[in-house]
Amino acid sequence: MSAEMANEIKLISGRSHPELSDKIAKRLGIEVARTISLNYSNQETSFTVGESVRDEDVFIVQSTATGDVNEGLMELLIMISACRTASARRITAVIPNFPYARQDKKDKSRAPISARLVANMMQTAGANHIVTVDLHASQIQGFFSVPVDNLYAEPSFLRYIRENFSTEDCVIVSPDAGGAKRATSIADHLNTAFALIHKERPRPNVVGRMVLVGNVEDKVAILVDDMADTCGTLVKAAAVLKENGAKSVLALVTHGILSGNAIETLNGSVLSALVVTNTVPLGDKVERCPKLRVIDISPTIAEAIRRTHNGESVSYLFNHAPV
Amino acid sequence: MVRNIVVLGGNSHPALVESVCNILGLPACNRILTKFSSGESRCEIQDSVRGKDVYIIQTGFGGNGSKLNDHFMDLCIMISACKTGSARRVTAVLPLFPYSRQPDLPYKKAGAPLFKTGSENGKKDYTFDSVPATPAPGVPRSAGLVNGADITSRLAKTSLTNGTGSVSPVKQTNGDAYFGGNQPVANGVHGRVGSYTTHDYENVSHVGAFEAKPGYKQWVAQAGTLVANLLTCAGADHVITMDLHDPQVQGFFDVPVDNLYGRPLLKRYIQTLIPNYKDAVIISPDAGGAKRATAIADSMGIEFALIHKERRPTKITDRQNASMMLVGNVTDRVCILIDDLADTGNTITRAAKLLKKEGATKIYALLTHGVFSGDAINRIKASAIDKLVVTNSVPQDEHKALLGPKLDVLDISPIFGEAIRRVHHGESISVLFNHD
User: What's the ipTM?
Assistant: First the structure.
């Protein structure tokens, strides 16, 4: 026992995505801390700590399992709060897929800004630092008064495209105007053409025609977005691209939430592949959907944890994906 | 008719919301409260709350296909939505406060203590010579004991040495028993490596695989303070609840908390519906509830008895009942068990069994909160309890359907309606505490 024994990385895994935690732990060459989360029969969540976190650098990995967002969130809050009462030196919440990221503005009267509420809750529970991947809106970082490291899946996507396609054949397509920035960034890095699909909204809540801006003829059209939930937009966009003469259409999406009938929608679509990262637990969806490909994001997260722990810059990861 | 007030109901107890609204003479606020397919809560408040006094009713109960944590998040989101919607004041009304009681007995699905003989894993990696895993570079092993007692000899007195392991439930908020000094060290610091204070009714095998680090005493996080802080952080200006298991939870809040009592209701039930109640005996099923039970016994001038749970480590074979002792006399008497909350129903059914054995003629159990999770209903059905009386602080329709005439439900909506009215008008609510 020496002084440098203390303040090591303690990786605590929530129940939502143990596979990701295991991969991160393996990458870091450590073991996941001995803790266990359970639900009592009255449905209250209980968190048992089986090893000391006193004066350690605690990283709590909790994603959001589709359908069980609130369970995962409460569990995360309880874990953070438990580590704080157990005198952890620093508590970093690693939330690959930030919950409620889409409820980030008051878009109608008395609509809750749930993303801000979640941010406040995490700070109230005692999080000192947040690590996340591809926030739906980077402004969510402003909801926090603690540092937020927003990692990007973009370097992983760039590598995937370079490895699987010849870049001259590709067109990067944004399925809506909001994602144009994300898509142009990829197009710029690859030096490929870019196109955009414009959604006409004649009335609120009515999706009108989709108009393609740009040329995709005889090209491989790559749709880029940050999350695929019910996949309705993606599939419609893919159909528009096919109509406009695209050779094939695939989609690169960071968070594969894939709720509702997403898998059936995908299977019946013209998309040749949907590539997602493993920020969200996919369960049996890979088996149910032959079009689904998964990029492992754990090296990026593990490296961010290592760098955060050692006080090194994380910005390297914004342009490079560790192998 | 009360003006400028908005009552907003969560999904956990629509019947209570409706009857509170009826009492106040106003309709419940229109809202959409569902889930997106991704699992995130969707909340839209459709009536204006600007400048209003908003009361949000959500009880800490999950069941009938809904989840407790969903309800709690819904509550926080509703509070936050009202706050951003310029409500003048937001009051969270939680008839049953979630996470207010963390079980202090190791128990599993069946309610009985989950026990795994600690003989192999309790001793495998750990000897009494081991240094605790808590960082203590160069610190002598016994230095942490404030009273200077020899830890080895004290530990040797526990039944750990005969391989049964310690079963003592210790409510622990800090795992560092070694350095806590005032903790009863003999109370199984290491023996509980192989037993659990938790139960996982969904995935028991998951629990079986869990083991704390050798030498580290595992502990269960207590979420009470967190829940209080989260409500305040969401924007609650005031909290109304009923019969908090620990009155200290009130102190976790920085905002006013009104803890209402279900006692007047229970008393009225005893006076009107229990024949010859003057000859009955009020029983507290554990020492923690003694104060609650004596308060009723004293004010009604009837006798009182207490069941004492022996917490000394005993042999596993006779632990189930031998550890319970009755203090007082119940032979040929009607017994009225009083408790604040029944979850798995373990405490009250075991108490009832003991009372029957001691010669009680009839056993009533009066509780404020009847959660009845797990297989509580079946246990109560099979128990010696003749009549179970609960309030509707959580929905009781399903329990009523299963238990039939054995269960009586008391309506708390008048108490909450009156509390809301008084809080809104700035009148004292202390009258609700004493009103008999």
Answer: 0.93
How far is it, in rounded angstroms, from Cα B176 to Cα B383?
Answer: 39
**In whole numbers, what is the pLDDT of chain B averaged over residues?**
78
Residue of B73, B109, B223 lying closest to A41 (CB–CB):
B109
Closest CA to B365 of B353, B374, B357: B353
SS3 content of chain B, % helix, strand, coil (to 5): 35, 20, 45
| Pairing, β A90-95 against β A129-133 | parallel
- Selected residue of B54, B56, B79, B226 to mutate for chain A interface (largest A Cβ count, 10 A): B226
**Residue B383 φ then ψ, to 5°:** -85, 180
User: If DSSP codes are grouped into helix, strand and coil, which group holds residue B142?
Assistant: helix
How much is the average pLDDT of B223-252? 93
pLDDT at B103 over 60: no
Quote the CA–CA distance of B365 and B404 in Å, as a whole number. 15
**What's B308-365 look like in SS3?**
EECCCCCCHHHHHHHCEEEECCCCCCEEEEEEEEECCCHHHHHHHHHHHHCCCCEEEE
Instruction: For chain A, give the percent of residues with pLDDT over 90.
Output: 83
Q: Which residue has the tokens 């407790």?
A: B68
Question: Is residue B76 within 8 Å of residue B58, measured between CB atoms?
Answer: no
Give the global pTM: 0.85
Digit-coded pLDDT (tens) for B129-155: 444 444 444 444 433 333 444 444 444
What are the pLDDT digits (tens) for A40-95? 888 899 998 999 999 999 999 999 888 889 999 999 999 999 999 999 999 999 99
Which residue reads 């370079």 in tokens? A162
Mean pLDDT over residues B369-396, rounded? 94
Interatomic CA distance for residues B376 and B109, integer angstroms: 10
Inter-chain residue contact B213 with A99, CB threshold 8 Å:
no
The CA-CA-CA angle for residues B17, B103, B186, to 5°, reads 160
Q: List CB contacts (< 8 A) between B70 and chain A.
A: 70-71
> pLDDT at residue B125 above 70?
no
Q: What is the DSSP letter of A220?
A: E
Which H/E stretch holds residue B56?
strand B53-57
* Nearest neighbour of A110 by CB, restricted to B81, B206, B232: B81
Q: Report how far residue A38's alpha carbon sits from residue B199's, in angstroms, rounded to the nearest whole number.
A: 7
Interface contact flag, B198 A81, Cβ < 8 Å = no
